[in-house]
Design a protein that fits this description.
Rossmann fold; 14 helices; 15 strands; elongated; P-loop_NTPase; T4SS_GSP_E_ATPase; CpaF family protein; T2SS/T4SS_dom
Length: 440
């Protein structure tokens, strides 16, 4: 076991040296000459065939140049070159690592990786900015997206469901800025979130009842707080006989449900034509007989269509929004509606918001990287021209006598007033043959 760890450390040390980069660059140039001689035949080779070709070529290159490398170092260079020719170079291992959530590249030699919510600097690097751009363009090529001086900013969905954002010169001053958000192939279930400590039994039960009772839920939180993962998890509570339409800028949701219609917006051409916005998709979704509409993120004029859908029979809809508190979330909705050209008065807008939303679930990423539901707040109506709310649960951190940090959710002792939940309780009681229970 110790020998294996020592070997891994030696491998990493060699790969991160300038000597490794120099030998790899020279061997790569030699390989390109051989590939040009092969012509179109090389393009038909499998990855295994490319690996064998690279192993033989690198071995011959090292021997011919009398480069002092041991067998393991030659293998490391050959493996790296195989990833260059048949894969995604230095990114390949990170993209294949299930623990990696975000890959953030600030120029060729400045790479950060987020694992379990904690951002750390990574030792891997690219040869130069051209090397980094070559790998990025290889990712973009099958997606039909262009990246050049006339189009220096690209946002794209990867085949595995992840998201890629790239900004290059002249907008990015210090080289290409690459941001890759990865998503789990198997979405987290509510029980998984419980195990991870994102919520406890009481919150689990409340959210399950709220989704099944067709309450409209808005998930609020900051960047990388776990909003999309929570939205995916809540979808597990949606009955299988319902039709769900998801609407996103970049399709990230992966709902474990038998009847999902996935819609994705489209940016316009370079001339600005052909754009299809989230607002357009919400309008169109109303003609698709949805039982529920799920909006990946509300960030613009589509907020009006979402509120109207929630107010006109599409109960059980859900969405996420960027905000730090439930009250700030409501202010943001008002602001977005104003920007969208809402024609009514402030009081009528607030009545629409209060009528549309049932619950705001606030989620956050703590300093230790853990994601936690910070509060569940019920929208209760409008009073004195202010949207009234009541907080049902609030997250608190505390330290045990041993110094261990723990989580708890404090109930404020208030039962939800939502008529949808009360109706569901009555139906459940009737099904059990028990008389209806009074609140309090």
């Amino acid at each position: 076991m110790s020998e294996h760890i020592d070997l891994a450390d030696d491998n990493e040390s060699f790969v991160n040296t300038q000597r490794f980069q120099d030998i790899k660059t020279a061997a790569y140039d030699n390989l390109l000459t051989r590939i040009e001689e092969l012509g179109a035949e090389f393009g038909r080779w499998s990855r295994t065939a490319i690996q064998q070709f690279v192993n033989l070529d690198v071995d011959g290159f090292v021997r011919l140049r009398h480069i002092p490398l041991n067998e393991n170092e030659v293998r490391l260079i050959a493996d790296s070159l195989t990833k260059e020719l048949a894969g995604l170079g230095p990114l390949e291992d990170l993209l294949g690592d299930a623990a990696v959530e975000d890959i953030l590249i600030n120029g060729y030699n400045d790479v950060f990786v987020s694992r379990h919510g904690v951002l750390e600097r990574e030792t891997l690097r690219f040869t130069d900015n051209n090397h980094l751009l070559r790998i990025v363009r290889r990712i973009l090529a099958p997606l039909g997206r262009r990246l050049d001086e006339s189009n220096p900013m690209v946002d794209a969905r990867l085949p595995d469901g992840g998201r890629l954002n790239v900004v290059i010169e002249p907008l990015a001053v210090d080289g290409p800025m690459v941001s890759i958000r990865k998503f789990r192939k198997d979405p987290l279930k509510p029980a998984d979130l419980q195990e991870l400590g994102t919520l406890n039994d009481q919150l689990f039960n409340l959210l399950e009842q709220a989704v099944k009772a067709r309450c409209n839920i808005l998930i609020s939180g900051g960047t990388s707080s776990g909003k999309t993962s929570l939205l995916n998890a809540l979808a597990f509570f949606i009955p299988n006989n319902e039709r769900v339409v998801t609407i996103e800028d970049t399709a990230e949701l992966s709902l474990n449900h038998p009847h999902v219609v996935r819609l994705e917006s489209r940016i316009g051409s370079f001339e600005g034509s052909g754009a299809v916005t989230i607002r357009d998709l919400i309008r169109n979704s109303l003609r698709m007989r949805p039982d529920r509409i799920i909006v990946g993120e509300v960030r613009g004029a589509e907020v009006l269509e979402m509120l109207q859908a929630m107010n006109t029979g599409h109960d059980g809809s859900m969405a996420t929004i960027h905000a730090n508190t439930p009250r700030e979330c409501l202010h943001r909705i008002e602001m977005l509606a104003g920007f969208a050209g809402f024609q009514g008065s402030e009081s009528s807008l607030r009545r629409q918001i209060a009528g549309a939303l049932d619950f705001i679930v606030q989620i956050a990423r703590l300093s230790n990287g853990r994601r936690r539901i910070m509060s569940i707040t019920e929208i209760t109506g409008v009073g004195d021209n202010i949207i009234t709310t009541q907080e049902l649960y609030r997250h608190e951190s505390y330290n045990t006598p041993d110094g261990e940090e723990k989580d708890r959710w404090v109930s404020l002792g208030i039962q939800p007033h939502s008529p949808k939940l009360q109706k569901r309780r009555l139906m459940q009681n009737a099904g059990d043959g028990n008389p209806p229970r009074r609140n309090g």
